[in-house]
Amino acid sequence: MKVGEIICLGSEVYFIERFLGKGKSAYSFLIKNSCALPFVLKQMHHEPCSYYHFEGNKLDMEIDAYKKLQKLKIHIPELLEQIPSQECLIKAFIDGENAMSCIANNRITLSVWKQLTDFAHSAKQAGFNPDFFPANFIVHNDMLYYIDYELNPYDEKWDFDHWGRYYWQNKNRMKAFLEDGDSKHINENTEKGLPFKKDVVSLT
Questions:
Q1: CB 198 within 8 A of CB 188
Q2: For 11-52, how does the pLDDT look when each residue is reduced to its tens digit (9 = 90+)?
Q3: How far apart are CA 47 and CA 35, in angstroms?
Q4: Looking at residue 27, what is its pLDDT?
Q5: DSSP string spanning 99-146?
Q6: Is the separation of the CB atoms in 30 and 17 below 8 Å?
Q7: What is the DSSP letter of 159?
Q8: What is residue 120's predicted lDDT score, i.e. its pLDDT?
């Protein structure tokens, strides 16, 4: 799949308008239907990740996580369609600013920070770790959305307090990362996906 293509997903035809990003499990694209309405296509891939191991079917894992996320204290985009034969999901499009940009430009409000920490608390209480890396969040009208469908069994090492917050509270390193995409700006250990734990600033 590439930008500019017209593709058939299930029984519908879509135009691939823009590449949104690549995660551990999938590529995401902004797509539009024949009425020019925007959606997000999440196309699974099978590329290796040095710091994460998948067990089971990625599509099934995403769908299961979506159902669990609906019970936690966070806004998520609606899952509109699942197409197992093409290993993809179609989700609602949230038109907002990615949290990485908000961090780099000092636009994380106290309201957004509280939504984030409430989400972290509710996930921990339920026994889960979301992926707290800021690329997985969108801010729209001061509302925080977790746009990834990823949940893992709770592990203190990868929770918000011991891992995620170091990305959210490091404006200068996030700004440098956005400028050239080099993860060495934000990760002290790039192979293991471990952030720098210094130079953080309080957002509360």
A1: no
A2: 899 999 999 988 888 899 999 999 999 999 999 987 666 555
A3: 33
A4: 92
A5: HHHHHHTT---HHHHHHHHHHHHHHHHHTEEE---GGGEEEETTEEEE
A6: yes
A7: S
A8: 97
Tokens of 145: 């959305």
Task: Give the CB-side neighbour count of residue 78, counting CA atoms within 13 A.
Answer: 5
- Full-model pTM: 0.90
- What's the burial of 7, exposed, middle or buried (CB within 10 Å: 0-12/13-18/19+)? middle
CA dist 127 and 153 (Å) reads 6
Fill in the amino acid letter for 170. Answer: N
Q: For residues 111-120, give the mean pLDDT.
A: 97
CA separation for the pair 138, 106 (Å, rounded):
15
Give the containing element (helix H, strand E) for 19: strand 12-22
What per-residue confidence (pLDDT) applies to 50? 59
Distance CA(135)–CA(193), nearest Å, equals 14
Count of alpha carbons within 13 angstroms of residue 144, beta-carbon side: 26
Q: What is the mean pLDDT of residues 127-146?
A: 97
